[in-house]
Amino acid sequence: MHYFVYDRPAGTVSTENPARFTWMPKSREEAPYRIEVRRNGEMAYCFENIDRNFYTPDCLMEPGEYTYCVYARNGLLGPEKSFSIASDAAHTPLAAREHRYDRIGSHPRIWLNQNDLPRAKAAIQNELKNEWQAFVQSGVDNWLAAPLIAEPRRYPNDVRVIPLWRKMYTDCQEALYTVKHLAVAYRLTGDPACLAKARAQLLALADWDLNGPTRRSYNDEAAFRVTTALAWGYDWLYEELTETERVAVRHALLERGRELYHLVHDGISIHTKLLDSHGVRSLSMTLVPAALALFGEAPEAEEWLNYTIEYFFTLFTPWGGDDGGWAEGPTYWQSGVSFFTEAISLVWKATGLDVFARPFFQNTGNFILNTYCQDTRFMAFGDMSDLGDYPGMKAGFTMRILGAAARNQNAPQYAWYCEQAKERGKGTEGMFYNYGWWNFNFDELFFRLLYPEAPAPEAPSDELTVTQFPHIGWVTIHKDMTDENRHLAFYFKSSPYGAVSHSHGDQNAFVLHAFGEPLAIQSGYYIGYWSSMHLNWRRQTKSKNAITVGGVGQFANLRKNTKDEEMNGSARTQYENLIRSRGCIEACEQTNGLVYLRGDATEAFRQSLPSVQSNKRHVLFVDETFFVIVDELELAESDVIDFRLHALSPFTIGQNEAKMQGEKAGMRVLFDQDMHITQSDVFDGADPAETEGLPAQYHLCATTSRRTKHHRLVSVLYPYAAGEEKSLTLNGDTLCMNSRSWKLIKENEKYTIL
Question: What is the mean pLDDT of residues 404-411?
């Protein structure tokens, strides 16, 4: 949640051994650095000749309490700070640079090496024969028959157009498929046709204009793919290229890799300005294969590899913490962590360095297991390119790698998740968010040849589970997770990341999926980042299952920063405004069959509506059946509040209640006071042309009848399977369902049910 890197491990208990050291540099010329670590006043460790503002030592440190100081070229950078190392901290040292790459051999070295090729050739004729044939059909034969991918054209008048942007980088993805797949097919089968086509596409890419429409500053997604294609082609076809051809490919790869490295290191400077989604992803998606391909042939390649690996071991990830959460949501986890997981698999294979041992990677699969369930739609929070579809298949393949490589105790459940993803995703391979990024038949080979001893699938428990991700402010509730027609999933969010990047103005919001159907949904469609749907609807609180005040929601407004602002750090103002739109999970408890959550979204409203002095939402899940929601607001000026709820089917509105009936399930919401209830199927503020032809959605707005400074609104949300609805009434603080009744009681800021 920090824009700039901060002093670490100052004042903390390190869960990793050795501790990670980071600090904010005052200038680019102050390196090299020295870190002095003392215990009981005596020097315990001294780390010298550090060339950047982040460092992971190569040795384990004794658990206990320490102090440390960081020195620059011109002296002490700041006061002495304390920290400690937990006795059970994970052992995650990083080998020193001197012998870090001793294991790297000749080409190929991306994915497999010379020693692996005989084993791989035998496997595709035997135990992996079916997987190989599926890969050939989907990722080899079609590119053999297709013409070479031509260099994309520029945008009209060089003005970015979203459909052309996507087509441009999809073309580049196809060029990557052509080079990568056919180069691998040639090395494993010796097919001369694969060699000829892969070489021709590789040389064509090397001849594309380095300052043209596929450069990073014009279309970074296109640049990532072209550079990655050059890396795989150079590495896997090295022995079949003439020296003249090697020079041409190496030159293009160096120039493109250099542009990218200088951007992330000197421009965006992701080691000082942390929250840049594409910059962080570019390390794993592109710089790792580029550096491995060029290692030993260009001094810069080792510099790229050092920077990337040290970033992986020290700073990754700015979007979460040890609990494995990812603040940008599961689809951006899917792109960010999927490429990262593949990259550190490549690093592990080539060097033996095990980034998977870090706590984040031990736990991050739990985030997807609980927030990206394969039988749910319109769930989670933030930007989602597959919003409305079932979760992407790539998450499943990534989960399987995490289970095998990180050796997590939930690895069997991760393998189960992968099987669910592959089965559910059949027929979606050609969707933009799949085809433009991955070939799953290659992913199958990638995994099976790297991790032959994979854990067997095992379904998770169907018992009620409550999982909190405190670093990002998300909580999930699940029941009957493995039974699609009985599964109940409820997610609640109040995040310290506010509305930064791909997050929205949705603190204290929830989503609900139950009995095989989306009920309280993440509304809208993902048209594109700067579309009117994105800016005026999906980022705004009015599109969430949340509270607005007199129609006003939390601050979530975007503005485009100039290139200079992004480079020099003055875009920090935009970041600070969005990060202040944050929330906090104050309570998450499960006792005697009752789940209790409390979120505070007060700060999220401060910029858009300063009169909000307190905004808290209490959620109780009662008898594993229904939710009681209490919204408490304190205002400096009298106003009404609006309870907002979104669904795929229209609501039937009654007296202080509403009901939505879907095909498999339904949902009732009841209020404890007089409410003015309306609904609409209009995405307010979005250009109707952006959603033309897409299914309608329905937006309920229940507004209090009284304008007051003090609001306490009790609502009941009751999901039910079709044909199983029970009677439910709400009278003041008393709820009745059939012959049972409950009393809502508040004690010391906390609500309970008796």
Answer: 89
